[in-house]
Design goal:
It is built from 23 helices and 15 strands. The strands form four sheets. A five-stranded parallel β-sheet has the order 7-6-5-11-12, with helices on both faces. Strands 1-2-4-3 form a four-stranded antiparallel β-sheet. A hairpin with a 2-residue loop joins strand 8 and strand 9. Helix 2 crosses helix 3, helix 4 packs across helix 20 and helix 6 crosses helix 8. The longest helix has 26 residues.
Length: 581
């Protein structure tokens, strides 16, 4: 929350606490420990700007009805030197507080003073967080899940950064393991088919059948030739992968850059294998007694580890049995590590080797069964599993004309991330993918995303910013020069529309902190649309250019503060804030 909002809440707590102590001292209340009580903002601001539940919290200890306690507090409360003009008792014992005009004036002055930093806080105290998202296999084009994951992960990282954390964005490149073997096989078959005909060799069912594989094989032939026909299968496949994989990774980097996502790290899975970290991690698991050998493979005792964790959390044997836990293979019979083994080493690298306080992964919802065992595996290597958080993301349905769309008209193939970014403004993609929390399935309306109307949320927010810019230019063209108003002039902003709008400006910092705590950037897009709504409501109800020069300057200043705040919010999400539309 902003420092002024925090101060106002502290003033309520201090004033109420002192009033309770006065009642105890005079014998109106019996001696009792004063509990922690909460302040909150009522749903209807006609009931006050803040409300405190102290009377309810004290009722049992004082053996009195909450309303009688609230009335006693009201008799003794002193609101001098606070942001509050009065308080009232409502209902069964709520204490409602009403803000003075000074509070709203100070909020606007704070918005102006903070400038581009308004909304930022030190809530996270610089705690190091790694946000890993998208991390698509580099064996083919990125799909709609990657599109949503990209917008969600990048905006989550931005929210955490604004909330005072040290944040690094990371893409985990799966350049080792089964999918690379399958990639190599697919390239090899297509390479031979192009040179010797489709009937020479059949592409196995369990391989990559996309046109992108054929294009890569043809590209190799065009650039290098047919010399791989004369070498061994393993040599041919290695050469094809060494050629094709970097090209796919560069395409991924280009697509992410187009999506306005700039990663701090592109982490290669292969480095875990080649650098010895994977085997080192497996040795730790062995040393800690969490492995066994069976049928020529090395297994991880997932059942034992998870059972111990779940019992520690109070789960019964019956509850644990229902989970049908299974052990996992770490090293296959052929001596190759599994993806799960590499995943353990990778998360150990983030949390132990590189020292991040928290690692956040954005995964598809189909990986939900993997979350608990990965946290358990962290415990098994000696790392607190709570330092790993996973945001599970539901599927996206592309919609057009009210119907699902799966194929691109241009290519006749499944719509990829690049297709989407070519067809829809990037501002709209980033904003709309963050309109719903990650755990909710969503329909992405292609028609809405390109619509230039108030029905399109990102257009609605951008239009509010552009409208304010237009208002200020118009005033200037009519010879009205904006100046810095005095605080006393800002206290003239007293209509419901004005105070409601300023109260929303005051809520930005707290909203960002709440979004960071809940890993939910949707709170920020909702904040932006609400800000646009409240501004339009103000502008439609109150004229800016009025005869009262002091009031006019105060309203011009309010418009500027809304414009700057909207720009900050959109900039945080890497969305443009146009000055004209």
């Amino acid at each position: 929350m902003s420092k002024l909002v925090k101060l106002a809440e502290e003033q309520i707590i201090s004033s109420v606490t002192q009033a309770i102590k006065s009642n105890i001292a005079e014998g109106t209340f019996i001696e009792a420990e004063i509990p922690n009580f909460k302040t909150e903002i009522p749903a209807d601001r006609k009931n006050g700007d803040y409300s405190a539940n102290a009377a309810f919290m004290l009722s049992k200890a004082l053996r009195m009805p909450p309303r009688k306690i609230a009335e006693g507090i009201l008799e003794k409360i002193d609101l001098a030197d606070t942001y509050f003009s009065k308080c009232e008792v409502a209902g069964p014992g709520f204490i409602n507080f009403f803000l003075k005009p000074d509070f709203y004036a100070d909020i606007l002055l704070d918005v102006e003073a903070c400038g581009d930093s308004y909304g930022k806080s030190d809530f996270g105290n610089g705690k190091k967080i790694n946000v890993e998202f998208v991390s698509a296999n580099p064996t083919g084009p990125m799909h709609m899940g990657n599109a949503r994951g990209g917008a969600l992960g990048d905006c989550l990282a931005a929210v955490l950064d604004w909330a005072g954390y040290y944040v690094e964005r990371e893409f985990y490149v799966n350049d080792a393991g089964n999918q690379i073997d399958k990639f190599a096989l697919s390239l090899d078959v297509r390479y031979q088919q192009i040179l010797k005909g489709e009937d020479f060799i059949e592409l196995p069912e369990d391989s990559y059948h996309g046109d992108d594989i054929r294009v890569l094989a043809q590209s190799y032939i065009d650039e290098v030739g047919d010399g791989l026909l004369d070498v061994s299968e393993s040599e041919r496949r290695k050469a094809l992968v060494d050629y094709a994989l970097p090209k796919n990774i560069e395409k991924m980097k280009a697509a992410m850059a187009k999506y306005r996502i700039n990663y701090n790290t592109w982490f290669s899975e292969l480095t875990l294998h080649n650098g010895g970290e994977l085997l080192e991690t497996i040795e730790i698991l062995k040393k800690n007694g969490h492995t066994y050998e069976k049928d020529g493979a090395l297994w991880y005792k997932n059942i034992d580890v998870m059972t111990a964790i779940l019992k520690r959390e109070g789960k019964s044997d019956e509850d644990i049995e229902k989970l049908e836990l299974k052990d996992d293979v770490l090293i296959r019979q052929n001596g190759n590590p599994t993806y799960f083994a590499a995943d353990i080493a990778y998360h150990r690298n983030k949390l132990e080797k590189r020292g991040f306080d928290t690692a956040i992964d954005v995964w598809g919802a189909d990986h939900h069964g993997h979350v608990a065992r990965m946290k358990g595996a962290m415990e098994a290597v000696g790392i607190d599993g709570n330092r790993l958080d996973v945001v599970l993301m539901q599927l996206v349905n592309l919609m057009k004309d009210g119907k699902p769309v799966k194929m691109s008209k241009r290519t006749g193939k499944a719509i990829t991330l690049v297709d989407l970014l070519d067809e829809v403004p990037i501002d709209a993609v980033r904003f709309l993918f963050n309109m719903r929390e990650a755990g909710s399935a969503m329909d992405f309306d292609l028609d809405l995303a390109v619509e230039q109307s108030n029905q399109n949320p990102v257009y609605y927010c951008q239009y509010a910013h552009a409208r304010i810019c237009s208002i200020l230019k118009k005033l200037e063209s009519e010879g009205i020069t904006a100046r810095m108003p005095e605080k006393a002039e800002l206290t003239l902003l007293s209509s419901d529309e004005e105070t409601d709008l300023i109260a929303h400006l005051a809520a930005l910092t707290g909203t960002i902190v709440l979004a960071a705590k809940s890993y939910d950037p949707a709170k920020i897009t909702h904040y932006a649309t609400d800000l646009a709504t409240k501004f339009h409501r103000f502008y439609n109800a109150q004229r800016v250019m009025v005869d009262d020069e002091a009031l006019m300057q105060a309203r011009i200043f309010l418009c500027k503060c809304v414009r700057n705040t909207m720009k900050n919010v959109l900039s945080m999400l890497c969305i443009e804030a146009p000055e004209s539309m």
